[in-house]
């Protein structure tokens, strides 16, 4: 899904989410575990306000397990409840409902004290395009998914999905825009496929990835492409070009006249990265944060 984010669209997206907030008890902020900060909406605190929030590091299966732990700690230190999950297979997804119970316990206790039967907790998933919102909704819905719409308080066209564990989910997620200003963020979003490659040059995106891999995952990089060595330092993206060239040579990415086809080589690297063939890679570490 490609969305052109102009100021008017952002205002509308923000307003739509804030309308939905009135209906729910808890927000699931879905981030890409490989690029948590880069996949975060810049205005999320302002949009969500004081509503209880669960930060979900999705696609944790593709990210480095140690980095997942560090990022979880990072967001916990900001006062959020955090879970690392894989919405495709469902790893970690079962922990969501108990976590919501814990987050809302005081509210539930107050209802019980007033003699009320606690109603299911209601959640809204928000996140940038391609972060896995629909996949998580489907996983939470499971086979026993039942829309429970047409009740008072249900916005027209929106349905509640029963997920079990005393949790109901709004079936339409809130779509948020990513950060645009920082070029590094743009490269990370393009590398993971969150924004279309054509927005940036694919060979530049690949060189950005190579610089990161050489710094944090050099053995993986050398092994995967049979590279004898890597440059001692890759201070900038341009310095990664010889590595891309070598990968192209090793993988037979040749264009007319037998020259290395950099775009083909970049395609090989990015496909390997996104499919997990390079192993579990996190493209942003808490250290990268200013
Ligand atoms: N490996 C892995 N892939 C995932 C996970 N969650 C989602 N995906 C994949 O990520 C891609 C995007 O998932 P969607 O659920 O369509 O994302 P979305 O946020 O609903 O996307 P938009 O509709 O564009 O807003 C799909 O190819 C999913 O299979 C996960 O936890 N692990």
TrEMBL record:
Main location: cytoplasm
One GO cellular component, as annotated: cytoplasm
UniProt-annotated location(s): Cytoplasm
Keywords for the protein's UniProt record, in alphabetical order: Cytoplasm, GTP-binding, Hydrolase, Nucleotide-binding, Ribosome biogenesis, RNA-binding
Recorded superkingdom: Bacteria
Homology family: Belongs to the TRAFAC class YlqF/YawG GTPase family. MTG1 subfamily.
Name recorded for this polypeptide: Ribosome biogenesis GTPase A
């Amino acid at each position: 899904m490609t969305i052109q984010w102009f100021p008017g669209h952002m205002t509308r997206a923000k307003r739509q989410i804030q309308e939905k907030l009135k209906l729910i008890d808890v927000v699931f902020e879905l981030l890409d575990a490989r690029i948590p900060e880069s996949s975060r909406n810049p205005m999320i605190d302002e949009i969500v306000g004081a509503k209880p929030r669960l930060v979900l590091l999705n696609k944790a299966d593709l990210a480095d397990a140690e980095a997942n732990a560090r990022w979880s700690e990072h967001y916990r230190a900001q006062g959020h409840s955090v879970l690392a999950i894989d919405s495709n297979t469902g790893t970690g997804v079962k922990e969501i409902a108990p976590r919501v119970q814990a987050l809302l316990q005081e509210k539930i206790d107050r209802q019980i004290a007033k003699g009320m039967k606690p109603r299911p907790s209601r959640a809204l998933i928000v996140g940038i395009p391609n972060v896995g919102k629909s996949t998580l909704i489907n996983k939470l819905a499971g086979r026993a998914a039942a829309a429970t719409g047409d009740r008072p308080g249900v916005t027209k066209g929106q349905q509640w999905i029963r997920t079990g564990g005393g949790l109901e989910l709004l079936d339409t997620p809130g779509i948020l825009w990513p950060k645009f200003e920082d070029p590094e963020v743009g490269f990370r979003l393009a590398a993971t496929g969150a924004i279309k490659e054509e927005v940036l040059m694919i060979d530049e995106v690949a060189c950005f990835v190579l610089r990161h891999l050489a710094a944090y995952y050099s053995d993986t990089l050398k092994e995967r492409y049979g590279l004898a060595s890597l440059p001692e330092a890759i201070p900038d993206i341009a310095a990664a070009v010889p590595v891309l060239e070598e990968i192209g040579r090793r993988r037979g990415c040749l264009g007319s006249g037998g020259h290395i086809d950099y775009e083909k080589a970049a395609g090989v690297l990015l496909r390997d990265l996104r499919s997990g063939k390079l192993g579990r890679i996190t493209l942003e570490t808490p250290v990268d944060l200013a």
